[in-house]
Structure to design on (320 residues):
């Protein structure tokens, strides 16, 4: 179990990781990289990144293929091509896991009293999810690769409200694992998305641990005072934080992961922390509720990465 972070595949970022004592990374923004589905000659870049990582003793824990909605008919062909290419790249250079969003079928009803649109329940669309993903999972299994779904709700208030991820809630994980025959389908686990739904991360690991293939190390903070005044659906009640700045017990999380036989790494994910991020450019929607950014122009993402690393490394066994 190594500590790393999410990053695009660039030599500059890999060198920063080495200089700061990280041991792994998750390759993000894959679809727009020189290995993406529109690039026919992808092997040289894949081999270069693998070699550069190996030279710095960095493990590529996973390829983050695509974090959009593969089950949207307008996106499905591109998503399928992206995941197939990511699987081919992973197999070619020895990466075990390809990850991304599972997506959702979005169909609307109209509420008879208010005439407002409401989502049809995602439970109805499990057959469509399996129809899209099981052929890709079989394609991956033939090449020794597994697929991990991130469970970020992609809805308001960090909750699965009008989001586009069918697997935002563990009850849907349970349905998926009961219905699929593909053992190489699992979860890209993130404590923050559980905390924001008042789900205990450690209990969740005890139940689903054998299905966890990759971990995004991110925490969350629930402002109880604000919630008790304004309720759960209020800006700022729940916010994402780096490990060490949230409310999860990372000693217990790592203990539980090790106990279940987790065999990959802890890759830190930033950007959403309201303080320790790079302030400037596009502000993440979930932290844009602030009227003023008193830290405007400050570049604090790397500070957050180092805070997260110091928090996690207390509990991760040193490699021999």
């Amino acid at each position: 179990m190594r500590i790393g972070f999410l990053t695009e595949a660039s030599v500059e970022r890999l060198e920063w990781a080495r200089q700061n004592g990280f041991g792994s990374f998750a390759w993000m923004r894959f679809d727009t990289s020189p290995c993406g589905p529109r690039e026919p000659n992808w092997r040289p870049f894949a081999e270069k990144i693998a070699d550069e990582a190996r030279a710095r003793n960095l493990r590529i824990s996973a390829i983050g293929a695509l974090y959009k909605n593969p089950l949207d008919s307008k996106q499905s062909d591109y998503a399928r091509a992206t995941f197939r290419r990511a699987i081919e790249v992973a197999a070619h250079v020895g990466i075990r896991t390809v990850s991304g969003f599972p997506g959702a079928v979005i169909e609307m009803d109209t509420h008879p009293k208010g005439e407002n649109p409401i989502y049809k329940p995602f439970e109805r669309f499990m057959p469509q999810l399996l129809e899209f993903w099981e052929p890709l999972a079989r394609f991956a299994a033939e090449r020794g690769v597994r697929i991990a779904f991130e469970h970020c709700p992609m809805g308001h208030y960090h909750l699965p409200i009008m989001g586009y991820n069918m697997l935002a809630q563990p009850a849907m994980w349970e349905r998926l694992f009961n219905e699929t025959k593909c053992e190489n389908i699992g979860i890209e686990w993130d404590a923050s998305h559980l905390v924001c739904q008042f789900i205990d991360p450690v209990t969740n690991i005890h139940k689903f641990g054998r299905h966890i293939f990759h971990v995004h190390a991110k925490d969350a903070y629930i402002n109880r005072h604000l919630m008790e005044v304004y309720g759960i659906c209020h800006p700022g009640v729940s916010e994402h934080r780096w490990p060490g700045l949230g409310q999860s017990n990372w000693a217990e999380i790592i203990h539980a992961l090790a106990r279940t036989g987790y065999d990959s790494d802890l890759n830190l994910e930033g950007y959403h922390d309201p303080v320790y991020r790079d302030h400037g450019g596009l502000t993440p929607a979930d932290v844009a509720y602030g009227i003023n950014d008193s830290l405007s122009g400050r570049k604090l993402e790397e500070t957050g990465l180092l805070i997260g690393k110091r928090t996690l490394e207390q509990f991760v066994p040193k490699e021999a």
In short: The longest helix spans residues 76-93.
